[in-house]
Automatic annotation (TrEMBL):
Belongs to the EamA transporter family. It is found in: Endomembrane system. InterPro entries: AA-Vitamin_Transporters, EamA_dom, EmrE-like. It comes from Lysinibacillus irui. It holds the Pfam family EamA. Keywords: Membrane, Transmembrane, Transmembrane helix. PANTHER family: EAMA DOMAIN-CONTAINING PROTEIN, INNER MEMBRANE TRANSPORTER. It comes from the Bacteria. Residues 9-139, 151-284 form the EamA domain. It is a multi-pass membrane protein. This is DMT family transporter. SUPFAM superfamilies: Multidrug resistance efflux transporter EmrE. The chain crosses the membrane at residues 12-35, 41-59, 71-91, 103-119, 126-143, 180-202, 214-235, 269-285.
Length: 305
């Protein structure tokens, strides 16, 4: 597949992944009051684990190598344990709009880890556009009165760093293992360890939760925890980790839009202006040069799957 076409498909997959991820905080905000942090944060991995176990068995996928297993542990720690648990806890006390602006720093974290893990060397123009996007969301955060950091804020910032590392590691590993296989194995590695705490946290009262709460929980398990990562890791493998990560700058504003639609949170003209600045930085950033160290050819099967 020609490089330009592969990059376009990678960017398209990145857009699909970001749209799916943008519903994660709103869905978490809906589910947490009824199921609690443990069920929402870890239970989604248990549900997703059942699904991916069936898929892996039906497809008779080969086991990852020892080296790949080490990378999968990093992905699992960030995408399956750290991020879901930290954001679920933070959403017990923060509105979606609050969390959205802090998660907007995720592309910078991802690009930063990509430098060390994937050997990518973004240009100065890339970093300038990233900094402009980050400054825009920080100004927006200050506008919302986020001047003081609380424990929930620290949890979200930790989630950004942990997931940034996971994204960079998963995007690199997807080139050789396959995009959906990366998140599938990561879920399968961590999921069984969550069964006991999830079981102990479940109460009979949770069975009375409304349909919206159950729908949100299953969205988090099937889409946010699995299908969104399939698109996202596939996009980074084909379009480049640093470049595709720039698409995430529109994620906080998609989150705010969905929060407005589903949670009745308000959206202001200032939000629209900042969104336009951030989107512009994404457009500039994704069109910049990102050099990469030469690596061994990757089998086409791993990329296409």
């Amino acid at each position: 597949m020609p490089d330009k076409r592969k990059e376009k498909i990678g960017l398209l997959l990145g857009v699909v992944g970001v749209i799916c991820f943008s519903l994660t905080l709103p869905a978490t905000s809906i589910a947490v009051p009824y199921f609690g942090t443990t069920i929402v944060g870890l239970g989604r991995a248990v549900i997703a684990g059942i699904i991916v176990a069936i898929v892996l068995l039906v497809r008779k996928e080969r086991l990852p190598s020892a080296r790949q297993f080490k990378s999968l542990m990093i992905v699992s720690f960030g995408a399956v344990l750290g991020f879901p648990l930290l954001t679920s806890w933070a959403m017990t006390s923060l509105p979606v709009s609050h969390g959205a602006v802090e998660l907007a720093l995720l592309p910078l974290a991802t690009a930063g880890f990509a430098i060390f893990r994937a050997g990518e060397r973004p240009s100065l123009k890339f970093w300038l556009s990233s900094v402009i996007g980050a400054i825009a969301v920080i100004i927006y955060a200050s506008y919302l009165g986020l001047g003081q950091l609380h424990m929930a804020d620290l949890a979200l910032l930790a989630a950004v760093l942990i997931l940034g590392l996971s994204y960079a590691e998963g995007g690199q590993l997807s080139k050789e293992l396959g995009s959906w296989q990366v998140i599938a194995w990561a879920i399968l590695i961590a999921g069984p360890f969550f069964i006991i705490p999830v079981f102990l946290s479940f109460t009979a009262d949770m069975l009375q939760a409304p349909a919206t709460a159950w729908l949100s929980l299953f969205y988090l398990a099937v889409v946010s925890q699995f299908l969104a990562y399939v698109a996202w890791y596939g996009g980074m493998a084909m379009g480049g980790i640093a470049r595709v990560s720039q698409i995430q700058y529109v994620q906080p504003f998609l989150m705010i839009l969905f929060a407005t639609l589903f949670l009745n949170e308000s959206i202001t003209s200032f939000t629209v202006v900042v969104a336009m600045i951030v989107v512009l930085s994404v457009i500039v950033g994704k069109n910049t040069t990102v050099k990469q160290k030469e690596s061994k050819p990757v089998p086409s099967k791993a990329i296409n799957e």
